[in-house]
Amino acid sequence: MAVQRQPRPSPDPEYVLRGHRTGVQALLHHPKMDLLYSGDAEGSVLVWDLQHRRPVSTHRLHPASAGVLSLAWLGSNLLSQGRDGTIKGWAVEEDGSCSREHNLVLQTNSYNFCRCSVIPHRPDASDDKPGNGKAPLQEVAGDAEAGTGEPERWLVALAGSNPATVELWEIIGLEVQKWRELKQREDAKMGMCMALQLFRTPDNDTVYAAAGYEDGTVAVWDAGQPDSPIMSSRMHTEPVMALAIDPMGKWGASGSADDKLAVFGLDWDQMKVQELAAIPLKKPGVAALALRRDGKIFAAAGWDGRVRLYRCDTRKPLAVLQYHRSGVQDICFDERSKRLART
């Protein structure tokens, strides 16, 4: 008699947080405290105390018509992106709550669904050459932090007012300026930018931007060479909805509206994006990807309400997490506790 091995049941959530009146679209863990930030479709952000499993504070960061599309850290400030054409910065108090007034604004005039990406910026001398795409400084609500050292520099990448163009904005202290634009060649027909991640490789300080496009292409840009991507390949037959690049800059994963996850290598010698594996999905659609910082596990948030976990080295599935009845919008690893939050 043949005995068929039964699949393990999906593990239950450790706990469930309820407090939003509408759908949650963005998640972010605090880097030092046991706090979780969740942004919803009406523009509100709740700050959750994960030890006591209750909200610490609630803030309306964007209009109800815009919602909160993504959240990110800019040093000790919280960045919120809405579909109102703005990205705002907020001071964070000792208890983790946000200030009542924002201290910086990026007036991007970008109204698409592509989430922004943030990385520290260490510019070299080439950044001061003419024609680097800088725009006049915008008005900001706040001053740079006092101190004897140089103010912190950051780059923020987003799909621009022309959604086929990737815009790079530089933040120095609390001053904001458009730094560069990564434009497609005139003969390229990749469509709108749908997903972004800024990253570096360990051997240099060059900033790279990985971008997923409407036609299914994944392209990698050198921020210092804005005229065209340095490597690209079409990974999907549908628009790329999510990207994740490993901390070493050797490989990445992309999710789309089609029925597969693409795992690709970044060949820096031949300047090629090469598909390493195509992981089939029973139901199409991936809204978000998250790679744990230790490089062992990555997770995919599905439109079918499931989160799938995979080993990074073998790409083999580890578990399928079920709880949500509708699509999962975002996922986020806590690097301190290794918990995975999903919404």
Automatic annotation (TrEMBL):
WD repeats lie at residues 17-58. Residues 122-146 are annotated as: Disordered. This is WD40 repeat-like protein. The lineage of its organism: Eukaryota, Viridiplantae, Chlorophyta, core chlorophytes, Trebouxiophyceae. It comes from Coccomyxa subellipsoidea. It comes from the Eukaryota. SMART domains: WD40. Residues 122-131 have a biased composition (Basic and acidic residues). Keywords: Repeat, WD repeat. PROSITE patterns: WD_REPEATS_2, WD_REPEATS_REGION. InterPro entries: WD40/YVTN_repeat-like_dom_sf (IPR015943), WD40_repeat_dom_sf (IPR036322), WD40_rpt (IPR001680).
